[in-house]
C-alpha cells in the first residue's frame, strides 16, 4: 500500500512530495516520486499546505448512551472532515467511561470506524460523582492505554479527591484534565457568563472567578504533588494570568482553548438562541482578546474543540432549559485560521492543533514533523479558500453549529490517516 502526495507546502513553506508506504512516511522531497512503486495512488496537493494530522484533546462522541446525537463512527467522520487523525473521547457518556472495560469498548469502536485514532479519556471519579476515584490504573494498563483523565462536564471540586487523582496518575505519566468550575460559585440554574449582558437578559450567570479559583487551586496541587494538570477549555483572562504565573514557577500545567472562545462573545446571547449556550460560557470581548494573545504567546498550549453534539430535542428549548454545548470538529481549523492574524503561521497551527496536543495526550504516533519514518497522518489544507459554513452539510449527527452562515478562511481538502485517504476533496473517501 503506497500513496504519493504531490506538491504540498510543508507547514506552509517548502514545497515537496511525500511518499507513504505501508502507513508510514517513506520519503520526503524531490526524489520521493522517483522512489514510488509503479501504479502508486497519488493525491494532488498543488497549492495545499501539509500539516501533521490534527489531534483533538476534547471531543464528545456520545456513544454509548446517546447515539441519537453522535456515534463513534459519525464523530470520527466529522473529525476526519475537519482534518483530525486523533481525538480524545470524553468520559461523560452513559454509562460513564470509568472502567477499563468501558474504555476498551470506546477504543474498539474507534478502531472499527477506522477513520481517526479514538483515544478514550477515563473519568477521574466513579460515575463523575466527584467522590471516589475511578479505576485509573486499570484503564491506564488496559490495551486502550488511557493517559488523560477527566470528569469533564463536571469539576473535580473536592480538593482532596483532586490531590489523590494527581498523585495516582503521576505513576504512569498520566494527566488530569480539569473542567475548572467551582460548583458553589456557578450556582444552580446558571446558564451563561455573569455580567452586564446576563443582567440585561434576566439570565442567571456564573462569573469568571468560578473558573479562576479552581485553576489557582489546581496549579498549587500540581506543584504540591509534582504531577501534571491540564486545564480544559480555559475561558477567562484571570485564568490566563494564573497559568502564566504557574508556568513561570515551573509548575507542570498545560491548557487548551476552544475555537469558539477565541471568537464568540456573550453579546450573542441577546437573541436567546440556545446554539450559543455552552459550558464554559461565552465571555466578554476582553476575555476573548486575552485568550488570543495567550494562544499566540504560548501560554495556551493547544486548541481543543469541545465538540459537544446534542439532539434537536435537547437543544431546541428556551435558553435556560437547553443543553450546554456546540459542534466544533468540522470547523475548528477554519475558525482558528480566521481568528488569529497572519503572524500566527502554519507552524503555529501545527503546534497548537497537532504537536502539543499529541504530546499532552501521550500519543507518540501523532503530531510529527512530516519526516521519514513517522506514521503517515497528514492534513492537507487550502490556505486561501473561503468557506461559508452550512450546518446542513455537516457529517455530524447533530446540528448545533454556531458557525452556520459564517465565512471561514482555509479549508481541509484531504486527510490521510495512517496512509489511508479518509477525506478526499473535502468529502469522506
Ligand atoms: N461543553 C459543553 O457545553 N457541554 C459538554 C459538557 C460540559 O462541559 O458541560 C457536553 O458534554 O455537552
From TrEMBL:
EC identifiers of the protein: 3.5.2.3
A GO BP term here is:
'de novo' UMP biosynthetic process
Described by its record, this protein's role is as follows: Catalyzes the reversible cyclization of carbamoyl aspartate to dihydroorotate.
Per the UniProt record, the source organism is Nocardioides jishulii
Question: Cofactor: bound how, per the entry note?
Answer: Binds 2 Zn(2+) ions per subunit.
Question: What PANTHER family does the record point to?
Answer: ALLANTOINASE
Q: Where does Zn(2+) 2 bind?
A: 152, 179, 233
Q: Which residues form the signal peptide?
A: none
**What is this protein called in UniProt?**
Dihydroorotase
Asked if Zinc is a keyword of the record, the answer is yes
- InterPro entries xrefs: Amidohydro_3, DHOase, DHOase/Allantoinase_Hydrolase, DHOase_cat, Dihydroorotase_CS, Metal-dep_hydrolase_composite, Metal_Hydrolase
